[in-house]
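INFO  loader      accepted 1 record
INFO  loader      residues=211
INFO  predictor   begin
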Amino acid sequence: MMQVRWDRDREARTGVPEVVYGPGKSNAHLREIFEGTSELRIASRLNDEQMRVLSDLATIHREARMAVRNARKLREMSPVPVITAGTADIPVALEASTTLEAMGVPTANHFDVGVAGIHRLQSILPELAATRVCIVVAGMDGALPAVVAGLVRAPVIGVPTSVGTGVAQGGITALNTMLASCSPGVAVVNIDSGFGAACLALKILGCNTPD
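INFO  predictor   done
INFO  writer      dumping tokens
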């Protein structure tokens, strides 16, 4: 008996297709969603068993904890930079870049360029000059999005992460820092929400309609 009601009209309404949130999904539900379809399928926040269950039906992006079936062809356009402050922020950044590339938007990952070694950010600034939107992922003090927004013309999507101990408060400090940024043009998504950042980037780009 069919138990999944797939929202096929969501992309037409919102510009973003339905994406499966892994926690709470049974293996049977996941396979039902991914089997026998030519449509794009994306699942996020998968555990190890769920990734194993989908391994014959989709491409598994293990560090991002995602599965993708029928990814769209990458468009001819400048890649979206996905930047992290540190290496501990990479899984959240990969959730963003995997979502974008599944939707046909190329990305360029720039990892470990945080404010503790600001010269590393300077080395990639030429690559950011022509971009239409940047995604910047940071935990701890969460300062990097404000720095990037002060150096580039593009809107910056800040993604606070739960990286950090003590007063970092599971990402709340980074979230508040980004919200309090004195650099204009920073939009902030939820803690660890690489997927949310990708969806906002898609809407900014206007690339949310399938070819």
